[in-house]
Amino acid sequence: MIISNSKDIKIYKEACEISVSMLKKIGEEIRDGVTPLDLDRMAGHLCDEHGVSAAFKRVNGYNFNTCISINDVAVHGIPKDTPLKKGDLVSIDFGIIHKGLNTDHCWTWSVGEPTKADRKLLKAGREAVENCIELAIEGNHTGDLGFEMERVAKHNGYNVLKMFVGHGIGKTLHDMVIVGKNKPTILTDTLKWSTTA
């Protein structure tokens, strides 16, 4: 979505600040014995407290506030009632709708201290996202971001699942702009997008 006025940019920043603060609170509850369904319910309560809607519940047929992927589930896992255990990697994908604008964030945590292999994976994911943030400047292309994410993944010995790409976001959760290795959309100062490593 192209946000074309300063009012919407301000609202979008507010929405992101609210969403990130909520995701941090949810992450603080990740520990041995807690279930993904518990975390999802917490997300719903936080939405109520902040007067926002859970963006994912607006996806036709989806009845959860979050997507929670455990260990080798790549993305968009459905929250279940199976307790987390020490050593699990937990990725929570979460977004809100605030004053008509959507957010979409995903963070990954370790239940307890991560293994050496898990630390490497977490570090590579963070590096890929941070590198993309540096490249997200007016005049670059969405393909530059996708290429960098794939470069970081392969450099660290990981593969990329080609069917998953970043996307535009704003008044809709999944907008037409696609962030992938071979995507030519030019970035502007008003283009908003979401990408996950």
UniProtKB/TrEMBL annotation:
GO cellular component: cytosol
Keyword list, A-Z: Aminopeptidase, Hydrolase, Protease
Gene Ontology molecular function, alphabetical: initiator methionyl aminopeptidase activity; metalloaminopeptidase activity
Record-annotated Peptidase M24 domain positions: 11-184
Database matches in SUPFAM superfamilies: Creatinase/aminopeptidase (SSF55920)
Keyword Protease: yes
Matching Gene3D superfamilies: Creatinase/methionine aminopeptidase superfamily
Pfam families attached to this UniProt entry: Peptidase_M24
This protein's record includes keyword Transmembrane helix: no
InterPro entries the record matches: Creatinase/aminopeptidase-like (IPR036005), Pept_M24 (IPR000994), Pept_M24_MAP (IPR001714)
EC number: 3.4.11.18
Protein name: Methionine aminopeptidase, type I, methionyl aminopeptidase
Organism: candidate division WS6 bacterium GW2011_GWC1_33_20
Lineage start: Bacteria, Candidatus Dojkabacteria
